[in-house]
Amino acid sequence: MAPENTFDLEEYLTGGVENLVRDLVKSALFHPAESRFMARYAVESKKASQRRHLYEQQGEHIPPFLIASITSLCNLHCAGCYARSLDTCADGEPVQQLTAEEWGGIFSQARELGISFILLAGGEPMVRRDVLEKAAEFPEILFPVFTNGTLFGKEYLALLEKNRNIAPIFSIEGGQDSTDIRRGLGVYKRVRAAMEELSARHILFGASITVTRENWQEVTSDSFIQGLQDGGCKAIIYVEYVPTEHELGSLALDDALRAALDARLTELREREDMPLMISFPGDEQKSGGCLAAGRGFFHINSHGGAEPCPFSPYSDVNVRDTSLRQAMASRLFTALRDGGMLLEEHEGGCTLFARRAEVEALLQR
To answer: Of the given ranges (24-38, 48-62, 67-81), which has the lowest mean pLDDT?
Structure first.
């Protein structure tokens, strides 16, 4: 059952985009390229919403988001990385991963369906410049790129400056100490340097933060958020830590800390001039349950497997063999949506990760 204080994530994001447009148009004389893109994107986003609404009237639900892991290759070894734990991220060159042309076909289908946000992830997505160049051909779609921020150079800056629909989302864990402990010595400085380069060019970017028992107060503090804002950050995505190993479970938030985090984010959102703030899975739960398996989004891995979400790497259909529309109606997705698992309360950061044995069982039916 959905909580009484329901929260419409799609509506919040749409409002956030509109606020960005308003603020950027005000300063158009200072960075017109950014404001022009956001104004055009706001128009296209409304058109996409109308297309999804038409499908809804016909009894077919189209989620507004898609998560695309465009590679399994990563150049870092972050402590407690769920992708490495699940063997969906590795050092070796991936085999049989989707080509840039195949990703282009997926992006085209998404555009026609009214999907207006495609989150590009990995591994480290910046190793697939060919896919990012393909994404640039779809200005109607906003492509947040979840990156560790260590692979930026002049060539990438030129690509981003020309194609404003590609928006880096930098992974950090807090300040320098917190980030370098988890991600490696010197990573924080490289990320901040990349942020400074983008801010100087008025290129839209945000930050993604894995929230743990150890850093949650730091990353929601006024000083930390102000520092990101002063550096040009327009959005902050808080992702609750999912323990990948038993000994790392002590880093996960308990119910009391989860409630405290939710209260703090509610307080911050009520202030004026705050960046766009998204929290997973907190915002999902307030939206009426887990949004995976096509309720609000789904995941495509680097080999084309359509999965409920990145934390639930199970698939019974591949987009190489079927369309996005057919993938969303897969037996696994349908069973998850109709079976009620996504609406059930749970402990921890991810419903499907916590119930992975049950998801595996659905594949055997």
So the answer is: 24-38
Q: What is the fold of 9-364?
A: TIM Barrel (3.20.20)
Report pLDDT for 30: 52
Burial 139-164 (b: 16+ CB within 10 A, else e): bbbbbbbbbbbbebeeebbeebeebb
Judged against a pLDDT cut of 90, whether residue 363 lies above it is answered with no
Question: Each residue of 310-321: pLDDT tens digit?
Answer: 888 899 999 999
Q: What is the per-residue pLDDT for 143?
A: 95
Q: Are 73 and 127 in contact (CB under 8 A)?
A: yes
Dihedrals phi, psi of 187, to nearest 5 degrees:
-65, -40
Which of the 8 DSSP states describes residue 73? B
**Structure confidence at residue 4 (pLDDT):** 45
The C-alpha atoms of residue 253 and residue 141 are separated, in whole angstroms, by 34
Cβ-defined contacts of 180-186 (< 8 Å, 24+): 181/79, 182/78, 182/79, 182/80, 182/210, 183/76, 183/78, 183/79, 183/148, 184/76, 184/77, 184/78
Distance CA 83, CA 148 (A): 14
Residues contacting 30, CB < 8 A, separation 6+: 202
How many helices (H) and strands (E) would you count in the chain? 16, 9
Tokens found for residue 345? 């309360």
Contact status, residue 309 vs residue 298, Cβ threshold 8 Å: yes
CA atoms within 13 A on the CB side of 284: 26
Separation between Cα atoms, residue 354 and residue 357, nearest integer Å: 8
28 has pLDDT over 50: no
CB 171 within 8 A of CB 149: yes
Question: Does residue 23 have a pLDDT over 70?
Answer: no
Cis bond before residue 64 (omega within 30° of 0): no
Q: pTM (2 decimals)?
A: 0.89
For the beta carbon of residue 64, count every other beta carbon within 10 angstroms: 20
- Contacts of 161-164 spanning 24+ positions with Cβ under 8 A: 161/33, 161/201, 161/203, 162/136, 163/135, 163/136, 163/139, 164/33, 164/34, 164/37, 164/38, 164/139, 164/203, 164/204
Omega before 123 within 30 of 0, i.e. cis: yes
Strands 206-211 and 306-307: unpaired
